[in-house]
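Chapter review: from sequence to fold.
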Amino acid sequence: MNTVTFFNNKGGVGKTSLVYHLAWMYSELGLKVLAVDFDPQANLSAMFLEEEVLEQMWPEGEHAQTVLGAVRPIIRGVGDLMEPHIELVSRNLGLLIGDLGLSSFEDELSAQWPECNDGKERAFRVISTFYRLMLSASEKARTDLVLVDVGPNLGAINRAALIATDHVVIPLAPDLFSMQGLRNLGPTLRRWRRGWGERLNKNPDPKLPLPSGAMKPGGYVFMQHFAREKRPVKAFDRWMQRMPSEYRVSVLDEKDDGSVKLEADPHCLAKLKHYRSLMPMAMEARRPMFDLRPADGAIGAHTYAVQECKRDFEELARKIAASCGIPVPSPGTKSHNTPMFHLT
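The token string follows.
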């Protein structure tokens, strides 16, 4: 199970939109993708699904076809995971639907974290819930890649989601707040990784699948920077040039002499434009910006913007895959022969 989580404890950087578009892009490149919404705000699910569909998935009672529905027996202490529902979005793309009620799991995840130190089986079952949920869904659907969206905070839900992931990609805005976010995020990830490593050998049930807690840094992506003649405006450029050093010090825990410039930084995966004119059309059409058609309003100058957007996201998808060791079909490989998303 190849798992990549997109995380920044600073909100408003375009994280959910990034996950949405990359999920579509990887599926178009021929991978079977599972998108997972562990953000209690459920914004990723709202991007994929119409409100009428979400209303059906969020019934009152015990039968929500969401991540909350799958983990509810654990929250109530009456059982283990239920089989997760996977909503098929396309032939190569499925979704584990988010739920606003997932926030009710925060206290239990927080309470059980220290209990792992005492070797209590329930504690390990609770803390590994998200990992086992994704593992079950990935095996059920035979996916190649799992992309995870989480909320912008350093709480217990995100800790459980992050220790379940292989790689972490950090979306950034070119500003002071994102730089400060890196200073908070990097030490927190290392603390979570170290804390989970100390608990792993205290698991009393060797048959219980547990995550390794790798959380390997996969790089960072600049989002929504304003461009003037394809160059960031001066104020933003100043912050962007400081990020390579801050990323090394805060996230990689390395010493840095400031010699690595942004343009040569291998950890900088992309500097994505905002594509302001395309996003409203994409939201209306409920499709990714790079798949907009003339019938959706993408005519004239928008046609070029759609093509440029597709090039940008394909390049980013391939860079993330290379950074995280994920096999992706090479350019020119026909993907229409890829087996359909298969639910066993």
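Two observations follow directly from the output. The chain has twelve helices and ten strands. Residues 221 and 269 are 5 Å apart (CA to CA).
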